What we know:
By secondary structure, this protein is an alpha/beta fold.
Amino acid sequence: MSDILLQTGGLGFGYPQRNGLFGKPTLREVIKGVDLAVPRGSVVGLVGESGSGKTTLGRLLVRLLKPTSGGIQFDGLEIGQLDEAALRPLRARIQMIFQDPQSSLNPRLRLGTTLTRPLGVHGRLKGKRDQRERAAALLSLVGLPSDFAYRYPHELSGGQRQRAGIARALALEPDFIVADEIVSGLDVSTQAHILLLLKELRARLGLTMVFISHDLSVVRVLCDDVAILHHGEVVESGPVARVFGAPQHAYTRQLLAAIPLPDVEPGWLDESSVVSPQQQGSAA
Length: 284
Ligand SMILES: Nc1ncnc2c1ncn2[C@@H]1O[C@H](COP(=O)(O)OP(=O)(O)OP(=O)(O)O)[C@@H](O)[C@H]1O
């Protein structure tokens, strides 16, 4: 078994674009020749300014998009050109969490139904009681009380919704998760709770993750490795301490200068430094 769970080689992607009313559509390349390796059990940060291609690359990695060139190897299997039927058995193993959990939480369904629906789809539910127990276990995994199973998404705070989004992604016990800007839009204290939760889940479940963020300080506390994306190309990658401590590429230096890292110790996100939702009285 290789130490690398997911690897891309020369990965490229272009969105079709119309050229005038009668012109033939062409591809506008937004991901170019990306070589990325995600070791098992690691969290790899993907950073870059707005429009650099982070979301597109994330969607390629989970095969919501099909590459226009290059390949993606997942657990030794080339998945870049697989069609939907061939991808189906892999879908449970690869999940994406979005910035806006609204998109993964159906507003008309109670949380318990949303969380356990993927289990039902994959034939892993044994009746109503099992469904209730699985929903409670998933809620507890992300620090939410079990009676939240009866709530609708609009009855949750932003942080609670993001916890629910994480629970939904974890329902099928995936091996690989792409998290796309999942703490953007949350206040700083809620961000810290969610990051701490991810750290705990990672340790407990041995998750392998690509963590997309424009916030370098968040990447520094959570990620082992980081890849810097610029105009669809990875211009630099490696261990976070090395890339942020001694950036080699001019663009990385520019990014670091533009977004100064707060002067925090790498260990600031320890359990002792963050009040848990239970301690606070309500789940953040
Ligand atoms: N569905 C689409 N159709 C056509 N072009 C798109 C589509 N989605 C994104 N793009 C273009 O692809 C490029 C990369 O966009 P992408 O959203 O991947 O970047 P990003 O780094 O995630 O940006 P942000 O941080 O703002 O979300 C941009 O130029 C964008 O305009």
